[in-house]
Design goal:
alpha/beta, eight-stranded mixed β-sheet
C-alpha cells in the first residue's frame, strides 16, 4: 500500500524538477488538492534545503496584487547560486500601467515620466543596475558570437594572415557588446504586445502612447489577462533554451512554484487569478514553467473539466499510483490534476526527504563550465590553428608561412609562390628533375621577392625567373659531360624582409652537404640585403647581384667582399651618366641648369640616398635642390613642392614601387597647364614595363628613365657581337612568349648572372665543382659577352664590378626610344651623341682600365672551344682568344 505523503512527495518532485537539457519540456498541470480537515502541503512541495523558486502568498486582494507579490518573490535570486535573477520586464510594464491608472495619471506625458523613472537601475535592486545587466547579457551573447567569430577568423586567418584572425575575433567581441547593449537597454520587448488579441500595440505606436491607451481604454478584465499573460511570458523567456546562445535557461533545473493554500469557492481573488490563468493558457496554448498548486476543502467550482485527471488521495495500490505518475509526467500531460480526499492529519508527519538535492547545482556548474569552454576553447583552438597555419610549412621542409602570411623559404620549383610566376617556375622545376635524374649536378640559389607585392610589382622577379630558366634550359641541354644545373628558388618576402633568414637557410643547406656553388638575385639595395650578402660571403658563396646598384651594397663594415659580383652598372656610373645627359639635353631632355631631386630616405634602403649623392657630386651640388621623403604621403607633398619651384627637370631617384604615387602627385599637386620633365632612375623600369600606356598618354608628364639593360638595344648594333646578342635575347623572348608582364631588364641581367656561373662551372676542374673552384673561375674570367653587354670582373678598378657596364637613357613616347648609351655593349664604345661623358663611353672608364688592341683584357680565357657551355659568346663564337 502506498502512503499518500510519499505519493505527493514523488508527485511534486517529478513536476517541479525540470527535464534534462536534452529532453523537451513538459506541460505542467494546475494541481488542486482537496483536503480532509486541516493541513499544509508546503513541506511536501518544497523539502528543506531545496533551491526551488517558490512563492506562497499570505494574503492578496486581487489578481494584480497576487502577481505583484509573485514577481517580487520570484524576481529575487532564488534557486541555485550562480544564475541571474528573473527580470519581469513585460509584467512590470503592465503593473506600471495599473498603478498610473489608479492614480489617474494616464496622459502620455505622465507615462513618459513614469517609464523614465522605471528604467532599470533607478531605485531598483542592485542586480538591475545597468552595468550588472550589461555584463549578464554580455556573457550570454559572447557564447554565440565568439565561436562564430572564431570560425570566420580561422577561415580568414588561414586564407590571409594572423592579423585577420585577430580582427575577426575583435569584431565578434564588438558585435557581442552591441548585442548585449541592445538587450540590456531594451525596457520592454514590444513585439510581444503586438501579438495580443485584445489591446494590441500598433506597429508605429510609441510605448508611452500605448501605456496611456491601455490605462484609459482597457477594461479591468483585459488588463488582468494582459498582466497574467505578461507574467507567464516573462517566465517563459527566462526558461527558454535558446540554441544559438548559451542562456541561463539551460541551467534552470526547477520550475517556478506558486502555492495558494486555504482556497475555497468563496475566495474571489484566487478564483479570479485561476480564471485568468486558465483563459490565457487555453488561448495561447504555449508551454510555461509555472506550477500552480492549490489546497483547501473540496471546491468543485475551482476545477474546470478540461483535460482533467482525478485521483483519490486515499491509500491505494502502489502500482496504480506509479502508473498515474508516469501519465502525469508525460510532456503532453493533463491541464488539471485533482487529488481528492487527502488527509494530512494521519500517518507519518515527517518532512519530505530531500529530492535530488544537488540536481540544480550540478546543472549550474555544468552551465558555467560550458560557458567558459565556449568562450575559451574556440579562441584557443582557432588561434592555435591559425598560428600553426601562419607558421606552418607551405612546402616542407624549407618553405614556411611567416607572420604576415607570406611563404618564405627555399623551394626546388615544386611550390609556386605566386600564380603569376607559374610558367617560369614550372620550367625551372622540369629542368631540376632532369638535373637530379642525371645523378651529377650543382645547385644555384635564386633569391628574389616572389610574394607580398601587388601583382604589377612582381615584374622584376618574374623577369629574373624567365632569364634564369632560359639559360638553365640551354645549359642542361648542351652540358655534355659537365654536371647539370639545378636552380633553387628562395623567396625572402616583400622588400626582402627575410633575406638574412633565407641566407642562413642557404648556408645551413651548404653545410649539410648540398652542392651549392652560387647565389643569384639580391635585386634591391637594402641594408637587409647587405647583411644577407655578408652571411653568404662568410660561407664563401659567390653572390651574383642582378639589379642591386648601391655602391656600398657589397661591403660589410666598410670592407669589400671578395665574393660579391655585380652584373649591372653601379649607382656611381648611373649618376654620372644621368648628370651628363641632363647637362647636354640628350634625347629630348631639357638642357637643365637647375634640377630638383626627389630622394627616398626610408631607413634601411640604400638605393635612393646613394644615387642622389652620386648625382649631386656629378652635376654640382649647388645646382641641385634635394627634397627627401619617406612614404607615399610625404612623396606627394614633395612632388607638389617640386612643381611649385618650376625646375628645368625633376630627377626621381626613388623606388619603382612608389612611382605610381609620384604620378598621382603630379596629377594632384602640379600645374596642368605646364609640361613637367622628369628623369627617373633605373628602378622605375619595372613600373614602366606594366604602365607604358598610361605614361605615354599623360597630358603634361614627359618621362625619360634610365635602364641598365634593354632588349631592343641590339637593334642599334650591327654585325659581330650584336648578332649573338639578338640570338640569345631571342631565346629569352621565345620562352616569355606573349606575356607582357615580366621585366626584360631583370630577365637579361639574371640570364647573364646564370651565364657567368655556367662559364665558371664548365671551366672548373673535377667531376662536380664546389663553391671554391667556381669562385676562382669568376674571379679570373676574362672578357665575355652577355645579353647586357660586356661581362668582365677582372678589368675593373673596383673589386668584382663588371667593367664598362652600359647605362641607357629611354624616352617614353608612343614607343620606348633609346636615346642614350654610356658603356660597352660590344668592343666598340658609343658615340659622343649617345654619351656626353667621354670617360663613360668606352672601356677606359671608372670601372675598368684600358684594354689591349684586341679590345680584350689579357686575363685568363676560361672556356676552350671544345667544352664551351651555351651562351659562352653571344657572337656565336666560343670564348676562346679573339
Amino acid at each position: 500500500m502506498a502512503d499518500v505523503r510519499t505519493f505527493l512527495r514523488h508527485l511534486f518532485g517529478r513536476l517541479i524538477r525540470r527535464p534534462a537539457p536534452w529532453r523537451r519540456d513538459r506541460s505542467l498541470p494546475q494541481v488542486s488538492v482537496f483536503l480532509k480537515g486541516e493541513g499544509d502541503l508546503e513541506p511536501l512541495i518544497v523539502p528543506d534545503g531545496q533551491p526551488v523558486p517558490y512563492f506562497s502568498p499570505a494574503a492578496y486582494s486581487g489578481v494584480p496584487d497576487l502577481v505583484k507579490q509573485a514577481v517580487a518573490k520570484l524576481g529575487e535570486r532564488t534557486g541555485p547560486r550562480g544564475l541571474p535573477r528573473i527580470r519581469f520586464q513585460l509584467t512590470g510594464f503592465v503593473l506600471l500601467v495599473l498603478r498610473r491608472r489608479e492614480l489617474g495619471e494616464v496622459a502620455i506625458p505622465d507615462m513618459e515620466r513614469a517609464l523614465a523613472e522605471d528604467r532599470p537601475g533607478r531605485g531598483g535592486p542592485p542586480d538591475d543596475r545597468p552595468r550588472v545587466v550589461m555584463l549578464d547579457y554580455l556573457g550570454r551573447s559572447l557564447t554565440g558570437w565568439i565561436p562564430a567569430a572564431s570560425v570566420i577568423g580561422t577561415w580568414l586567418g588561414q586564407a590571409t594572415t594572423l592579423l585577420a584572425w585577430g580582427v575577426s575575433v575583435a569584431a565578434g567581441v564588438v558585435v557581442a557588446v552591441g548585442h548585449a547593449a541592445v538587450l540590456a537597454r531594451t525596457h520592454v520587448r514590444s513585439s510581444w504586445f503586438r501579438k495580443q488579441a485584445a489591446q494590441q500595440r500598433t506597429p508605429w505606436e510609441r510605448l508611452p502612447a500605448y501605456a496611456s491607451r491601455l490605462a484609459a481604454r482597457a477594461s479591468d478584465e483585459e488588463l488582468e489577462r494582459l498582466l497574467v499573460g505578461a507574467f507567464l511570458e516573462d517566465l517563459r523567456q527566462a526558461y527558454r533554451r535558446r540554441r544559438l546562445f548559451l542562456w541561463p535557461a539551460w541551467a534552470r533545473a526547477y520550475h517556478c512554484v506558486l502555492y495558494l493554500k486555504g482556497v475555497t469557492a468563496a475566495d474571489t481573488a484566487a478564483a479570479a487569478f485561476l480564471g485568468r490563468l486558465h483563459e490565457v493558457r487555453e488561448r495561447n496554448a504555449q508551454w510555461d514553467p509555472l506550477l500552480v498548486v492549490t489546497s483547501g476543502p473540496e471546491s468543485p467550482g475551482l476545477v474546470r473539466d478540461v483535460r482533467t485527471v482525478r485521483v483519490t488521495g486515499a491509500d491505494g495500490d502502489e502500482e496504480a499510483h506509479h502508473e498515474w505518475l508516469r501519465r502525469v509526467s508525460h510532456r503532453h500531460g493533463p491541464a488539471y490534476l485533482v487529488i481528492e480526499g487527502v488527509d494530512l492529519t494521519a500517518g507519518d508527519d515527517r518532512r519530505a526527504a530531500p529530492l535530488a538535492p544537488v540536481a540544480g547545482h550540478k546543472r549550474v556548474r555544468a552551465y558555467w563550465t560550458i560557458m567558459v569552454a565556449l568562450l575559451v576553447v574556440p579562441l584557443i583552438a582557432s588561434g592555435l590553428y591559425v598560428w600553426n597555419s601562419a607558421m606552418t610549412y607551405c612546402q616542407a621542409p624549407d618553405v614556411l608561412r611567416d607572420e604576415l602570411g607570406e611563404c618564405v623559404g627555399i623551394s626546388d620549383g615544386g611550390y609556386v609562390f605566386h600564380d603569376r610566376l607559374k610558367t617560369p617556375i614550372d620550367r625551372i622545376a622540369a629542368e631540376n628533375v632532369k638535373a637530379v635524374d642525371s645523378g651529377r649536378y650543382v645547385e644555384i640559389v635564386y633569391i628574389g621577392p616572389m610574394t607580398g607585392a601587388p601583382d604589377a610589382l612582381l615584374a622584376g622577379s618574374h623577369g629574373e625567373l624567365y632569364g634564369i630558366a632560359a639559360y638553365q634550359q640551354d645549359y642542361n641541354a648542351q652540358s655534355g659531360d659537365r654536371p647539370k644545373m639545378r636552380v633553387l628558388l628562395g623567396n625572402p618576402g616583400k622588400a626582402f624582409r627575410k633575406s638574412v633568414t633565407l641566407a642562413r637557410q642557404v648556408v645551413d643547406r651548404l653545410e649539410s652537404g648540398a652542392p651549392i656553388v652560387g647565389v643569384i638575385g639580391m635585386a634591391q639595395s637594402r641594408a637587409v640585403n647587405q647583411e644577407a650578402i655578408a652571411v653568404l660571403n662568410t660561407a664563401g658563396l659567390p653572390v651574383m647581384v642582378t639589379v642591386g646598384t648601391a655602391d656600398e651594397l657589397g661591403q660589410h663594415e666598410r670592407v669589400p667582399s671578395p665574393y660579391f659580383f655585380r652584373m649591372a652598372a653601379n649607382n656611381g656610373r648611373e649618376a654620372r651618366a644621368s648628370a651628363a645627359w641632363v647637362r647636354a639635353g640628350t634625347g629630348g631632355l631639357p638642357a637643365a641648369k637647375k634640377v630638383t631631386l626627389l630622394e627616398d630616405v626610408t631607413e634601411g634602403d640604400l638605393y635612393s640616398a646613394d644615387l642622389a649623392a652620386g648625382f649631386r657630386d656629378a652635376f654640382g651640388e649647388a645646382d641641385v635642390t634635394s627634397l627627401s621623403y619617406t612614404g607615399g604621403r610625404q612623396l606627394k607633398a614633395q612632388v607638389k613642392k617640386a612643381c611649385a619651384g618650376k625646375p628645368d627637370l625633376i630627377y626621381y631617384t626613388g623606388r619603382g614601387d612608389d612611382f605610381v604615387t609620384f604620378v598621382q602627385g603630379v596629377d594632384e599637386g602640379c600645374s596642368q597647364s605646364r609640361i613637367h620633365h622628369v628623369l627617373a632612375s633605373d628602378d622605375v623600369t619595372k613600373y614602366v614595363q606594366d604602365n607604358h600606356q598610361r605614361l605615354k598618354d599623360h597630358p603634361n608628364l614627359r618621362l625619360h628613365y634610365v635602364t641598365l639593360a634593354w632588349e631592343k638595344v641590339w637593334d642599334h648594333v650591327t654585325g659581330g657581337e650584336g648578332q649573338g646578342g639578338k640570338a640569345q635575347i631571342g631565346r629569352i623572348q621565345r620562352l616569355i612568349g606573349k606575356d607582357a608582364q615580366p621585366s626584360r631588364l631583370h630577365a637579361m641581367l639574371a640570364h647573364d648572372a646564370a651565364l657567368a656561373l655556367g662559364l665558371a662551372i664548365s671551366a672548373a676542374p673535377g667531376p662536380v665543382p664546389d663553391k671554391g673552384t667556381v669562385l676562382f673561375g669568376l674571379s679570373t674570367m676574362g672578357t665575355q659577352y652577355g645579353t647586357t653587354g660586356v661581362i668582365e670582373f677582372t678589368g675593373g678598378r673596383e673589386l668584382h664590378e663588371s667593367a664598362g657596364k652600359p647605362v641607357m637613357l629611354i624616352q617614353v613616347g608612343q614607343e620606348p626610344k633609346l636615346v642614350g648609351v654610356c658603356g660597352r655593349l660590344t668592343e666598340v664604345g658609343p658615340s659622343l651623341a649617345d654619351c656626353p661623358d667621354r670617360a663613360l663611353r668606352g672601356a677606359d672608364d671608372a670601372n675598368g682600365p684600358p684594354v689591349g688592341p684586341a679590345g680584350r683584357q689579357g686575363g685568363r680565357q676560361m672556356v676552350p672551344a671544345t667544352s664551351a657551355a651555351p651562351g659562352t659568346s653571344l657572337s656565336g663564337r666560343d670564348a676562346g682568344p679573339m
